[in-house]
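Q: What would this complex look like in 3D?
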Amino acid sequence: MNQEAVGKERWVVGSELPSVAKTLSQEKIDRYARASGDFNPIHVDVAFAAQTPFGGTIAHGMLLLAYLSEMLTAAFGRAWLSGGRLKVRFKGAARPGDVVTARGRVQRVEGERGVCSVECLNQQNEVLVAGQAEVRMS
Amino acid sequence: MNRAIEALEKGHQFSATFFVLDEEAVARYVEAVEDEALPRLAQAEGKAWVPPMAVAALALRSLMEEMTLPAGSIHASQELEFVRAVEAGERITCRAWLGHRSQRSGWWVLAVEMEGADESGQAVLAGRLTVMVPG
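A: Here is my prediction, written as structure tokens for the whole assembly.
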């Protein structure tokens, strides 16, 4: 995709948004903790996290939302940054080594706003995050 | 004030917080999340756009400094509205209040409403964070 094409696609109901896939690692989770200031030990303290029901560290939920946001920025450009809405539930944990795929589909158009289903999946197709995004499409 | 969140009453107003995402912090965030789309958009438009989720993450982070979530708390859901695009260097003030508080099946269900505004008081972000706290 070239620079001029960012967010300039024509979307119709049923269109799949270009997916984004990232491979997680503890180093990436640590880097996100430094960038966001969120050093909750469930994310960054391997020994602590091993004693929790998760059995190990998990990625920040907001890191997964950043992957959704990248997908929506690529698809809708400035319309996502100005007027975008997101409503999601966290359904599962992403762990170091997981491949997280953010994907979405245009579900319907209400006036000038498009409603997309969005989700993050791991490499086993388990849903980690699911919900809806709304963005101005005209 | 920094009391356990489940001890607070519905309507409780958290102290206002603020943050600034300068260009260095934005670059650090973009690298951390490996966002390839935002830099392309920013370059195409000649603007130092901040990734909207960076604004949300910093707003949530600043809120977390005002509340205590016990171990075992779960970030259950998130709603966000990006009212307008934010540029690097803007000072964002974040206000939040406890919008919902209930207890069921051994969990407190708490919803925190938040708003981020620029220096002129114009909204840039709104959101609702739902957390489940054991108890």
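A: To summarize the key features: The CA atoms of residues 25 and 65 of chain A lie 17 Å apart. The two ends of chain A are 21 Å apart (CA to CA).
Q: Very helpful, thank you.
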